[in-house]
Design goal:
The structure is a single chain. The chain has 175 residues and is α+β, with helices and mostly antiparallel strands. The protein has one domain: Jelly Rolls. The protein contains two helices and nine strands, in the order H-E-E-E-E-E-E-E-E-E-H.
Length: 175
């Protein structure tokens, strides 16, 4: 009887460790302690494929969820994923966003607040993905969209120049 009890204990312990390990890979803590924020802070994460190779996550992980706990006074602000707003919070000390579709690869999460505050906890969870924070010396800068009208004008000028050159070459060939 003692052997059976030990066997069940080992099986349960193995199951618990396996489930904990699987859950830990899909969740990352990006801030802990007391991190002050004046107006915004950005985190860069890399979402990789998990080891299970489940067909459910072949194209993309399930979703992204963010949980934030603020320190001090209630705060108002927004959370952005790759420059796109995914949630807002008004006069609260916690933020827990709804699931947001996400793809594998590198993403920037930006937390923007209307008044100075501090983050106590900042968790990101992506079921079906393995998360890793990318630590750089600089805050990531948002990519600016180029002024397309300037580029179109430049290309039209080049096309006109090439057409004029073709016309002059044809004249020389015919004479």
């Amino acid at each position: 009887m003692d052997l059976v009890r030990r066997s069940w204990f080992v099986v349960l312990l193995t199951l618990f460790v396996g489930v904990s390990t699987g859950a830990a890979q899909s969740r990352i803590q990006l801030a802990q302690g007391k991190r002050p924020i004046e107006d915004k802070v950005s985190f860069v994460i890399d979402v990789g494929r998990d080891r299970s190779q489940s067909p459910r996550f072949a194209e993309a992980p399930e979703s992204l969820q963010i949980y934030t706990l603020f320190s001090g006074q209630p705060v108002t602000g927004r959370v952005y994923l790759d420059g796109r707003a995914i949630g807002r919070f008004d006069e609260t000390q916690t933020f827990n966003c709804n699931p947001v579709p996400i793809s594998y690869g590198r993403h920037t999460i930006t937390l923007s607040v209307t008044s100075p505050t501090a983050i106590r906890e900042f968790y990101v969870t992506v079921p079906g993905g393995v998360l890793r924070e990318i630590l750089d010396d600089q805050e990531p800068s948002p990519t600016l969209t180029p002024d397309l009208t300037k580029r179109v004008t430049e290309l039209e000028r080049k096309v006109n120049d090439l057409e004029a050159e073709i016309a002059s070459l044809k004249k020389k060939r015919n004479h």
